[in-house]
C-alpha cells in the first residue's frame, strides 16, 4: 500500500489526493492543511466580501466531510516545516506548537503562493490588508463590520485589485485604485485596460495610473497614503494586492531546485529533482504550451490540472502536463475581460512574427433585443498564419468566457487563424450570428494580413 503525503489543501493538493484515490483505492492519502479551510475557493473571496455570496462556507468546493468521505485523511491546522528526503519524513507543527514527524512513500508539495509585500512603509498598520487566504478574508470582513469604512485605497490594478474595487463599491465604499503601470490590468492590451478604467470611473471609482505607493501612515483615526507624482489620499482602509510569490520554504528544506521567481522546478510529470517528491500549483513553474518553456503563471485552473497529474503519477501513472495558455477571464461590474495565449508584445519577445487586429461586433444578432458590443483582439503569426492569442472585452452576458475558450481550444490544437472559420459553432439569433464573433474577428485578421502582403 502506497503512503501518499500531500502538503497543502487548496486546488493542487485536493486534486492530487482525489485522483490518487480514484485510481487506487488502497492508497493511504494524508492531506496536511495549514488552516482549517481545505479546498476553499480563493477566487471567490471578492464575491463574499461584496455581499453577493452571503455565507463564506459556500466558498468551499467540498466540505471537510466530503473530502474525508473519499478516504482522504485530513490533518487540519498543521504546518509542515521540514522535509527529510533521506528518511522520507516531514515534520509538522500544530497551532499549539506540538511537533510530529509523518512518513511517506510519495510526497506531493502544493504549498501555493503568498501575497507579495511591496516595499511600502506602514503595511503593518491596523486597517491595512493583504488578501490571499481565508484568514485575510475574515480580517477584512471583521474590519468592515466594526469600523464601517467609507473610503478605501486599493494598491494594485490587477485581477484581485479590480474585483475588490467592484466588491467594496457594492458595499457603498468610495474606492481609489492606484496602479504603478500606465493602465490597469497590464496583462491585457492598453486599449482594453482603458475600457476597464472607464468602467470603474462610471461607478465613481478613482483610477490613478503610473503611481507607486511609498508610505501609509496613521493620523488620528485616518490612514494617509502617499506615493510618487505627489499622490496623497486620506482613507479608512487600504488593500494591497500587487500579486503573489511562490511559497517554497518547505521545498527548499528538502533540497528541491527552484527557478523562475523562486518557484519549484518540475518536469511535465510534476516530478521534482528529488526522487518520490512531486510538486504542483502556485508554488511551481508552469510549462507554457506556446512558448515551449517554463514560466511562472499561477492560476487555479492550472493548479487543478497539475495536482491531478501529480496524484496520478504518485500511484504509478505516467501522465504529462500539456501546458498552459494563460487563459483568464475577469468580471468587473457588468464588463468581462478575457485573454488566452500571447499578446503582440509577448509574441515579439518570443521572436515570433505577430500581427494583432482589433475587431468590434455584436454578441448576437442586433435585431434581437439586448445585443451588446464585443471588442476582440486576434493575434496571429504573419508568416505561418498560426493563431497566437486573443483578447475579448464586453458585457459579461455576451458570452465573453465562452468565446475566449473557443480561441483557447484552437490554440491548444495549434490551429491557424483562418481555420477558425471552419469550426462548426452554434447559432441562434438571441445568442450569436451565423458567423460567430470569434469567426468574424478571425476573418478580419486574415483580410488585414492578406491586404498587407500586396
From TrEMBL:
<keyword id="KW-0676">Redox-active center</keyword>
<dbReference type="GO" id="GO:0016491">
    <property type="term" value="F:oxidoreductase activity"/>
</dbReference>
<dbReference type="InterPro" id="IPR004099">
    <property type="entry name" value="Pyr_nucl-diS_OxRdtase_dimer"/>
</dbReference>
<keyword id="KW-0285">Flavoprotein</keyword>
<keyword id="KW-0274">FAD</keyword>
<dbReference type="InterPro" id="IPR050260">
    <property type="entry name" value="FAD-bd_OxRdtase"/>
</dbReference>
<feature type="domain" description="Pyridine nucleotide-disulphide oxidoreductase dimerisation">
    <location>
        <begin position="329"/>
        <end position="432"/>
    </location>
</feature>
<keyword id="KW-0560">Oxidoreductase</keyword>
<dbReference type="InterPro" id="IPR036188">
    <property type="entry name" value="FAD/NAD-bd_sf"/>
</dbReference>
<protein>
    <submittedName>
        <fullName>FAD-dependent oxidoreductase</fullName>
    </submittedName>
</protein>
<dbReference type="InterPro" id="IPR023753">
    <property type="entry name" value="FAD/NAD-binding_dom"/>
</dbReference>
<comment type="similarity">
    <text>Belongs to the class-III pyridine nucleotide-disulfide oxidoreductase family.</text>
</comment>
<dbReference type="Pfam" id="PF02852">
    <property type="entry name" value="Pyr_redox_dim"/>
</dbReference>
<dbReference type="Pfam" id="PF07992">
    <property type="entry name" value="Pyr_redox_2"/>
</dbReference>
<dbReference type="InterPro" id="IPR016156">
    <property type="entry name" value="FAD/NAD-linked_Rdtase_dimer_sf"/>
</dbReference>
<feature type="domain" description="FAD/NAD(P)-binding">
    <location>
        <begin position="3"/>
        <end position="307"/>
    </location>
</feature>
Amino acid at each position: 500500500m502506497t503512503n501518499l503525503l500531500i502538503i497543502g489543501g487548496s486546488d493542487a493538493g485536493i486534486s492530487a489526493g482525489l485522483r490518487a484515490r480514484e485510481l487506487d483505492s488502497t492508497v493511504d492519502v494524508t492531506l496536511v492543511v495549514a488552516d482549517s479551510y481545505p479546498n476553499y475557493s480563493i477566487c471567490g473571496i471578492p464575491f463574499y466580501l461584496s455581499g453577493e455570496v452571503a455565507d463564506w462556507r459556500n466558498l468551499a468546493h467540498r466540505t471537510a466531510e466530503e473530502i474525508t468521505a473519499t478516504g482522504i485523511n485530513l490533518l487540519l491546522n498543521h504546518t509542515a516545516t521540514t522535509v527529510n528526503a533521506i528518511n522520507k519524513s516531514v515534520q509538522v507543527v500544530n497551532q499549539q506548537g506540538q511537533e510530529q514527524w509523518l512518513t511517506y512513500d510519495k510526497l506531493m508539495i502544493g504549498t501555493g503562493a503568498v501575497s507579495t509585500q511591496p516595499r511600502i512603509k506602514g503595511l503593518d498598520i491596523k486597517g491595512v490588508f493583504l488578501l490571499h487566504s481565508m484568514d485575510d478574508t475574515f480580517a477584512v470582513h471583521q474590519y468592515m463590520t466594526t469600523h464601517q469604512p467609507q473610503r478605501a485605497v486599493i494598491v494594485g490594478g490587477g485581477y484581485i485589485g479590480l474585483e475588490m474595487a467592484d466588491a467594496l463599491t457594492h458595499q457603498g465604499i468610495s474606492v481609489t485604485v492606484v496602479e504603478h503601470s500606465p493602465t490597469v490590468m497590464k496583462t491585457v492590451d492598453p486599449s482594453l485596460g482603458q475600457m476597464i478604467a472607464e468602467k470603474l470611473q462610471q461607478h465613481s471609482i478613482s483610477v490613478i495610473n503610473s503611481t507607486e505607493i511609498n508610505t501609509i501612515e496613521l493620523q488620528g483615526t485616518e490612514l494617509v497614503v502617499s506615493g510618487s507624482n505627489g499622490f496623497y489620499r486620506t482613507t479608512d482602509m487600504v488593500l494591497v494586492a500587487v500579486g503573489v510569490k511562490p511559497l517554497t520554504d518547505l521545498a527548499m528544506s528538502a533540497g528541491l531546485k527552484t527557478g523562475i521567481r523562486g518557484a519549484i522546478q518540475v518536469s511535465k510529470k510534476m516530478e521534482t529533482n528529488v526522487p518520490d517528491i512531486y510538486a504542483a500549483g502556485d508554488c511551481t513553474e508552469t510549462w507554457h504550451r506556446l512558448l515551449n518553456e517554463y514560466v511562472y503563471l499561477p492560476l487555479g485552473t492550472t493548479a487543478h490540472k497539475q495536482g491531478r497529474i501529480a496524484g496520478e503519477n504518485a500511484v504509478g501513472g505516467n501522465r504529462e502536463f500539456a501546458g498552459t495558455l494563460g487563459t483568464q477571464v475577469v468580471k468587473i461590474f457588468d464588463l468581462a475581460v478575457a485573454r488566452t495565449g500571447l499578446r503582440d508584445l509577448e509574441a515579439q519577445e518570443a521572436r515570433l512574427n505577430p500581427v494583432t487586429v482589433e475587431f468590434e461586433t455584436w454578441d448576437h444578432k442586433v435585431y434581437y433585443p439586448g445585443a451588446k458590443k464585443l471588442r476582440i483582439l486576434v493575434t496571429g503569426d504573419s508568416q505561418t498564419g498560426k493563431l497566437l492569442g486573443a483578447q475579448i472585452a464586453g458585457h459579461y452576458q455576451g458570452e465573453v468566457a465562452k468565446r475566449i475558450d473557443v480561441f483557447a481550444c484552437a490554440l491548444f490544437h495549434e490551429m491557424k487563424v483562418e481555420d477558425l472559420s471552419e469550426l462548426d459553432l452554434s447559432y441562434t439569433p438571441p445568442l450569436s450570428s451565423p458567423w460567430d464573433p470569434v469567426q468574424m474577428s478571425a476573418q478580419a485578421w486574415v483580410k488585414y494580413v492578406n491586404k498587407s502582403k500586396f
